[in-house]
Amino acid sequence: MTDKPILRALKGETLPTPPIWMMRQAGRYLPEYRATRAQAGDFLSLCYNSELAAEVTLQPIRRYGFDAAILFADILLLPQALGPKLWFETGEGPRMETTTTPAELAALRPDEEIHETLAPVYETLRILTRELPRETTLIGFAGAPWTVATYMIAGRGTKDQGPAHALKATDRATFAGLIDKITSATILYLSAQVQAGAEVVKLFDSWAGSLKGQDFTDFALKPTARIIAALKAKHPGLPIIAFPREAGDRYIGFARASGADCVAVDNSVSPEWAAENVQKDGCVQGNLAPDLLVSGGEPLVQGARRVTRAFAGGPHIFNLGHGITPDADPDNVKRMIDAVRGA
Ligand code: CP3
Description:
This protein is α/β, with parallel strands linked by helices. It is built from 16 helices and 9 strands. It has one domain: Alpha-Beta Barrel (TIM Barrel). The two termini are 29 Å apart.
C-alpha cells in the first residue's frame, strides 16, 4: 500500500495540496548540476555515468523536496542504442546520424540489443531506489515514437519537424516502419526501467502538436496506446503519464483513448480549460509557464496559485508546461513551491 502523494494522485485521488515536481528539474539552472556535469566531462558522459546521473537526479530533491525524482537521462539514448551515432553540439543541441531509407531502417539493431547500451540507465534507477527519501516517487521515461522519429529522420532538432513530415508524405512505408520500430524498442526500454525500480513512467511527445487530424491519431495516439497497453500487460497497475505537447483540442479524451493514467498539459492551454476538458477523465499534470521562473515576483506567485486553484477540484500533479530553462533563478523555484503548498 502506498502513501506517496504522486501515486495517490495518479490513482485519481484529489489531494488538499497537489504533489509537485518539474520537467528538467535536474538541469543547468542549478550550479550543483553544472559542477557535476563538468566532473562527468559532457552531457552524454553524465547520462551514462550511473553514479553521477543518480547524483544530479537527487540534487533537486535535496534542495527543494519535490514529490518525484525523474531519472536523469535523455530521450535520444534509445535511438542511439539502436545504432545511429549521437552527439551534442555545444550551444546548439543534439545531432544524430539520420535514418530515412529502407536500408537504414533495416540496419537498426534488434530491440533486445538496446540493453547493452542502456544498462547504465537501469543502474542509475537501481541506485536511486536505494537513495531516494521514502516519500519520493521515482519516474522513468522515454520519448514517444513520433518525437523520437523527428530527431532520427532530421538528425537534429527542427522548428517544424519538416523532414519527418516530408518522409511521411513521400515514403510512408519507411516512416511507419520507423515508428513501429521505435514503439517496440520503447516497450522493452520502459519495461526494463520498471524492473530497475521506476514506479511511474512518462512518455514525452514534445512535437505531438505538429501532427494534425488522422496523422495525430495514427502517429501520436496509436503508438502511445500500444506502448501503454504492452506495459500494463507486463506490469499490472503501473501508472503512466502521457505528454502530447501542444495537442490542443486533442488533449480532450487522450487519457481514455491512450490508456494513460494522467495527461500532462503544456501552457498553450489555460489551466481552467484543462480542468474542465481534460481533468474530467482523471489526473492532469501541469501547467505553469516556465518563463515565470525567470521573471519571478508577484506574477510567479499568482501564476502558481492560479494553476493550483484551477485544478483543485480533481486529481492534479503540479508541474510546468515544459522544462525549466537554464536562465531560471533557483530561488524562484522555492517561491513557486511555497505558493503551491500555501506557505
Ligand atoms: O526532466 C528531467 O530533468 C529528466 C531528464 C531529461 C533530459 N531531457 C535531460 C536533458 C528529460 C526527461 C529529457 C527529455 C528530452 N530530451 C526531450 C523531451 C522533453 C522536451 O524538453 O521537450 C527532448 C526533446 C530531448 C532532446 C534534447 N536533449 C534536446 C533537444 C536537448 C538540447 C536542448 C537543451 O535544452 O539544451 C537536450 C539536452 C538535455 N537533456 C539537457 C538536459 C538536462 C541539457 C544538456 C546540458 O546539460 O548541456
